[in-house]
Amino acid sequence: MTFSFLDLFWVFLLVSSLQPMWQRRRIESSRLQALRGLEQQHNSRVILLIHRQESINLLGIPLSRYITIEDSEQILRAIRLTPPDMPIDLVLHTPGGLVLATEQIARALIRHPAKVTVFVPHYAMSGGTMLALAADEIVMDANAVLGPVDPQLGNFPAASVLKVVEEKPISDIDDQTLIMADLSRKAIQQVQKFVRTLLKDNVPQQKIADDKIELIIDTLTTGKVTHDYPVTVEEATELGLPITVGLSTSIYNLMELYPQPQGGRPTVQYIPTPYERRPALPEPKGRPIPEGARI
Description:
The chain is of the alpha/beta class. The protein has helices at about 5-40, 70-80, 100-110, 125-135, 160-165, 175-200, 210-220, 235-240, 250-255; strands at about 45-50, 55, 60-65, 90-95, 115-120, 125, 135-140, 145, 150-155, 155, 230, 245. The strands form four sheets. A five-stranded parallel beta sheet has the order 1-4-5-7-12, sandwiched between helices. The radius of gyration is 25 Å and the shape is globular. The chain starts with a helix and ends in a 39-residue tail after the last helix. The model is unreliable at about 55-60 (pLDDT under 50).
Protein backbone atom coordinates (compact mmCIF):
# COMPACT_ATOMS: atom_id res chain seq x y z
CA MET A 1 0.00 0.00 0.00
CA THR A 2 1.47 3.30 -1.11
CA PHE A 3 0.83 6.82 0.15
CA SER A 4 0.86 9.85 -2.03
CA PHE A 5 2.40 13.16 -0.98
CA LEU A 6 -1.14 14.50 -0.42
CA ASP A 7 -1.97 11.58 1.93
CA LEU A 8 1.20 12.22 3.94
CA PHE A 9 0.34 15.92 4.11
CA TRP A 10 -3.11 15.18 5.59
CA VAL A 11 -1.59 12.73 8.11
CA PHE A 12 0.92 15.40 9.14
CA LEU A 13 -1.87 17.97 9.44
CA LEU A 14 -3.96 15.61 11.59
CA VAL A 15 -1.07 14.78 13.92
CA SER A 16 -0.13 18.46 14.21
CA SER A 17 -3.69 19.41 15.14
CA LEU A 18 -3.97 16.65 17.76
CA GLN A 19 -0.57 17.22 19.34
CA PRO A 20 -1.57 20.32 21.40
CA MET A 21 -4.55 18.41 22.80
CA TRP A 22 -2.36 15.45 23.77
CA GLN A 23 0.15 17.79 25.35
CA ARG A 24 -2.56 19.58 27.38
CA ARG A 25 -3.91 16.26 28.61
CA ARG A 26 -0.44 15.08 29.56
CA ILE A 27 0.28 18.27 31.49
CA GLU A 28 -3.13 18.16 33.19
CA SER A 29 -2.52 14.55 34.21
CA SER A 30 0.91 15.51 35.60
CA ARG A 31 -0.64 18.39 37.55
CA LEU A 32 -3.29 16.16 39.12
CA GLN A 33 -0.65 13.59 40.06
CA ALA A 34 1.50 16.28 41.67
CA LEU A 35 -1.51 17.67 43.55
CA ARG A 36 -2.47 14.24 44.87
CA GLY A 37 1.12 13.59 45.91
CA LEU A 38 1.32 16.90 47.79
CA GLU A 39 -2.02 16.25 49.51
CA GLN A 40 -0.88 12.79 50.62
CA GLN A 41 2.42 14.22 51.83
CA HIS A 42 0.74 16.98 53.91
CA ASN A 43 -2.53 15.15 54.64
CA SER A 44 -4.39 18.28 53.56
CA ARG A 45 -6.52 19.88 50.86
CA VAL A 46 -4.16 21.64 48.42
CA ILE A 47 -5.54 24.61 46.46
CA LEU A 48 -3.54 26.44 43.80
CA LEU A 49 -4.00 30.09 42.89
CA ILE A 50 -1.44 30.70 40.17
CA HIS A 51 -1.58 33.67 37.82
CA ARG A 52 0.84 34.00 34.94
CA GLN A 53 1.13 36.93 32.55
CA GLU A 54 0.13 35.48 29.21
CA SER A 55 0.36 36.94 25.73
CA ILE A 56 -1.96 36.86 22.74
CA ASN A 57 -0.14 34.82 20.09
CA LEU A 58 -1.19 36.91 17.09
CA LEU A 59 0.02 40.30 18.30
CA GLY A 60 2.10 39.40 21.34
CA ILE A 61 0.08 41.74 23.56
CA PRO A 62 0.61 41.00 27.29
CA LEU A 63 -2.52 39.83 29.07
CA SER A 64 -2.35 40.16 32.86
CA ARG A 65 -4.09 37.61 35.06
CA TYR A 66 -5.40 38.49 38.51
CA ILE A 67 -7.81 37.34 41.24
CA THR A 68 -11.35 37.39 39.84
CA ILE A 69 -14.85 36.46 40.95
CA GLU A 70 -14.44 33.16 39.08
CA ASP A 71 -11.39 32.43 41.24
CA SER A 72 -13.33 33.12 44.43
CA GLU A 73 -16.21 30.88 43.30
CA GLN A 74 -13.85 27.97 42.65
CA ILE A 75 -11.86 28.38 45.86
CA LEU A 76 -14.99 28.74 47.99
CA ARG A 77 -16.30 25.53 46.45
CA ALA A 78 -13.02 23.75 47.22
CA ILE A 79 -13.20 24.94 50.85
CA ARG A 80 -16.82 23.75 51.14
CA LEU A 81 -15.74 20.30 49.91
CA THR A 82 -13.02 20.13 52.59
CA PRO A 83 -13.87 18.45 55.95
CA PRO A 84 -13.71 20.90 58.91
CA ASP A 85 -10.84 18.98 60.53
CA MET A 86 -8.69 18.79 57.37
CA PRO A 87 -5.93 21.44 56.95
CA ILE A 88 -5.88 23.61 53.82
CA ASP A 89 -2.66 24.41 51.95
CA LEU A 90 -2.97 27.33 49.52
CA VAL A 91 -0.16 27.81 47.00
CA LEU A 92 -0.10 31.47 45.94
CA HIS A 93 1.53 33.05 42.90
CA THR A 94 -0.41 36.21 42.04
CA PRO A 95 -0.09 39.99 41.56
CA GLY A 96 -3.43 40.54 43.37
CA GLY A 97 -6.85 41.37 41.98
CA LEU A 98 -10.40 42.39 42.84
CA VAL A 99 -11.01 43.41 46.46
CA LEU A 100 -14.43 41.71 46.52
CA ALA A 101 -13.07 38.35 45.32
CA THR A 102 -10.06 38.57 47.64
CA GLU A 103 -12.17 39.31 50.71
CA GLN A 104 -14.53 36.45 49.92
CA ILE A 105 -11.64 33.99 49.77
CA ALA A 106 -9.96 35.42 52.88
CA ARG A 107 -13.16 35.21 54.95
CA ALA A 108 -13.68 31.60 53.90
CA LEU A 109 -10.11 30.78 54.92
CA ILE A 110 -10.38 32.30 58.41
CA ARG A 111 -13.71 30.48 58.95
CA HIS A 112 -12.15 27.10 58.18
CA PRO A 113 -11.66 25.40 61.58
CA ALA A 114 -8.48 23.47 60.72
CA LYS A 115 -5.07 25.00 60.08
CA VAL A 116 -4.62 27.08 56.93
CA THR A 117 -1.12 27.39 55.46
CA VAL A 118 -0.17 29.64 52.56
CA PHE A 119 2.88 28.78 50.43
CA VAL A 120 4.59 31.58 48.48
CA PRO A 121 7.27 30.27 46.08
CA HIS A 122 7.84 33.59 44.28
CA TYR A 123 5.43 36.43 45.03
CA ALA A 124 1.96 37.16 46.44
CA MET A 125 1.34 40.86 46.02
CA SER A 126 -1.61 43.09 47.02
CA GLY A 127 -4.65 40.80 47.22
CA GLY A 128 -2.28 37.82 47.40
CA THR A 129 -0.78 39.30 50.57
CA MET A 130 -4.26 39.76 52.00
CA LEU A 131 -4.91 36.04 51.46
CA ALA A 132 -1.59 35.28 53.17
CA LEU A 133 -2.71 37.37 56.17
CA ALA A 134 -5.74 35.07 56.48
CA ALA A 135 -3.48 32.04 57.02
CA ASP A 136 -2.27 30.58 60.30
CA GLU A 137 1.19 30.15 58.79
CA ILE A 138 2.95 31.67 55.76
CA VAL A 139 5.68 29.48 54.26
CA MET A 140 7.91 31.39 51.84
CA ASP A 141 10.94 30.84 49.69
CA ALA A 142 13.87 32.82 51.11
CA ASN A 143 13.69 35.17 48.09
CA ALA A 144 9.89 35.38 47.79
CA VAL A 145 8.04 38.62 48.55
CA LEU A 146 4.69 39.93 49.73
CA GLY A 147 3.39 43.45 49.05
CA PRO A 148 1.33 46.35 50.40
CA VAL A 149 -2.47 46.04 50.41
CA ASP A 150 -3.26 49.77 50.16
CA PRO A 151 -6.34 50.31 47.93
CA GLN A 152 -6.01 51.64 44.39
CA LEU A 153 -8.68 53.77 42.73
CA GLY A 154 -8.31 53.34 39.01
CA ASN A 155 -4.67 54.19 38.24
CA PHE A 156 -4.10 56.12 41.45
CA PRO A 157 -3.23 55.00 44.98
CA ALA A 158 -5.91 56.09 47.44
CA ALA A 159 -3.25 57.50 49.80
CA SER A 160 -1.85 59.72 47.01
CA VAL A 161 -5.30 61.14 46.23
CA LEU A 162 -5.70 62.08 49.90
CA LYS A 163 -2.25 63.69 49.80
CA VAL A 164 -3.46 66.10 47.11
CA VAL A 165 -6.39 67.21 49.25
CA GLU A 166 -4.17 67.67 52.29
CA GLU A 167 -1.56 69.80 50.51
CA LYS A 168 -3.70 72.02 48.26
CA PRO A 169 -6.31 74.65 49.22
CA ILE A 170 -9.79 73.24 48.71
CA SER A 171 -10.61 76.11 46.36
CA ASP A 172 -7.93 74.85 43.97
CA ILE A 173 -9.24 71.28 43.88
CA ASP A 174 -11.84 70.19 41.33
CA ASP A 175 -14.99 68.30 42.33
CA GLN A 176 -13.87 65.00 40.79
CA THR A 177 -10.69 64.96 42.89
CA LEU A 178 -12.71 65.74 46.03
CA ILE A 179 -15.05 62.84 45.25
CA MET A 180 -12.02 60.59 44.67
CA ALA A 181 -10.58 61.71 48.00
CA ASP A 182 -13.81 60.81 49.79
CA LEU A 183 -13.81 57.38 48.18
CA SER A 184 -10.11 56.96 49.00
CA ARG A 185 -10.68 57.70 52.68
CA LYS A 186 -13.48 55.14 52.83
CA ALA A 187 -11.48 52.54 50.91
CA ILE A 188 -8.49 52.83 53.26
CA GLN A 189 -10.73 52.57 56.33
CA GLN A 190 -12.46 49.49 54.90
CA VAL A 191 -9.18 47.75 54.08
CA GLN A 192 -7.72 48.56 57.50
CA LYS A 193 -10.80 47.18 59.24
CA PHE A 194 -10.64 43.96 57.22
CA VAL A 195 -6.88 43.46 57.71
CA ARG A 196 -7.39 43.94 61.46
CA THR A 197 -10.06 41.21 61.35
CA LEU A 198 -7.68 38.85 59.55
CA LEU A 199 -4.78 39.42 61.93
CA LYS A 200 -6.84 39.04 65.10
CA ASP A 201 -8.06 35.63 63.88
CA ASN A 202 -4.64 33.94 64.18
CA VAL A 203 -4.50 30.72 66.20
CA PRO A 204 -3.53 31.26 69.87
CA GLN A 205 0.02 29.84 69.63
CA GLN A 206 0.77 32.25 66.78
CA LYS A 207 -1.39 35.17 67.89
CA ILE A 208 0.03 38.52 66.84
CA ALA A 209 0.31 41.15 69.59
CA ASP A 210 -1.97 44.19 69.31
CA ASP A 211 0.95 46.59 68.89
CA LYS A 212 2.30 44.43 66.05
CA ILE A 213 -1.15 44.36 64.42
CA GLU A 214 -1.27 48.16 64.31
CA LEU A 215 2.29 48.25 62.94
CA ILE A 216 1.38 45.80 60.16
CA ILE A 217 -1.75 47.77 59.28
CA ASP A 218 0.15 51.06 59.23
CA THR A 219 2.92 49.59 57.06
CA LEU A 220 0.77 47.76 54.52
CA THR A 221 -2.36 49.90 54.10
CA THR A 222 -1.42 53.59 54.35
CA GLY A 223 0.55 54.03 51.13
CA LYS A 224 3.88 54.85 52.79
CA VAL A 225 5.56 52.90 49.98
CA THR A 226 4.57 52.19 46.39
CA HIS A 227 2.00 49.50 45.68
CA ASP A 228 4.61 47.24 44.07
CA TYR A 229 7.05 47.54 47.00
CA PRO A 230 8.49 44.08 47.76
CA VAL A 231 8.04 43.05 51.40
CA THR A 232 10.85 40.56 51.92
CA VAL A 233 10.90 37.58 54.25
CA GLU A 234 13.08 39.52 56.69
CA GLU A 235 10.79 42.56 56.73
CA ALA A 236 7.63 40.45 57.04
CA THR A 237 9.16 38.57 59.97
CA GLU A 238 10.20 41.82 61.62
CA LEU A 239 6.63 43.09 61.27
CA GLY A 240 5.47 40.05 63.25
CA LEU A 241 3.84 37.94 60.54
CA PRO A 242 3.93 34.14 61.12
CA ILE A 243 6.60 33.45 58.49
CA THR A 244 8.40 30.14 57.97
CA VAL A 245 11.26 30.09 55.46
CA GLY A 246 11.81 27.08 53.23
CA LEU A 247 9.60 25.24 50.75
CA SER A 248 9.63 21.53 49.97
CA THR A 249 10.84 20.35 46.59
CA SER A 250 7.31 19.18 45.76
CA ILE A 251 6.09 22.80 45.75
CA TYR A 252 8.76 23.84 43.25
CA ASN A 253 8.04 20.76 41.11
CA LEU A 254 4.37 21.70 41.10
CA MET A 255 5.15 25.26 39.98
CA GLU A 256 7.17 23.91 37.05
CA LEU A 257 3.95 22.39 35.70
CA TYR A 258 2.54 25.93 35.36
CA PRO A 259 5.23 27.56 33.17
CA GLN A 260 5.11 31.07 31.81
CA PRO A 261 3.85 30.84 28.19
CA GLN A 262 6.72 31.36 25.79
CA GLY A 263 6.43 34.09 23.21
CA GLY A 264 9.42 33.93 20.89
CA ARG A 265 13.00 33.74 22.17
CA PRO A 266 13.28 32.87 25.88
CA THR A 267 14.67 35.69 28.02
CA VAL A 268 16.10 33.30 30.64
CA GLN A 269 17.86 30.06 29.80
CA TYR A 270 19.92 27.57 31.81
CA ILE A 271 20.60 23.84 32.14
CA PRO A 272 17.77 22.67 34.46
CA THR A 273 19.77 20.30 36.66
CA PRO A 274 21.19 20.79 40.16
CA TYR A 275 24.94 21.31 40.21
CA GLU A 276 27.58 20.17 42.64
CA ARG A 277 30.74 22.15 43.11
CA ARG A 278 33.42 20.81 40.79
CA PRO A 279 37.17 21.46 40.78
CA ALA A 280 38.25 24.15 38.37
CA LEU A 281 39.79 23.04 35.10
CA PRO A 282 43.54 23.67 34.77
CA GLU A 283 44.63 26.66 32.73
CA PRO A 284 45.50 25.70 29.14
CA LYS A 285 49.21 25.68 28.32
CA GLY A 286 50.59 28.43 26.21
CA ARG A 287 50.31 32.19 26.39
CA PRO A 288 48.22 33.24 29.43
CA ILE A 289 44.91 34.96 28.81
CA PRO A 290 44.94 38.65 29.83
CA GLU A 291 42.90 39.30 32.99
CA GLY A 292 40.56 41.75 31.27
CA ALA A 293 39.71 39.21 28.55
CA ARG A 294 38.25 36.56 30.90
CA ILE A 295 34.53 35.81 30.66
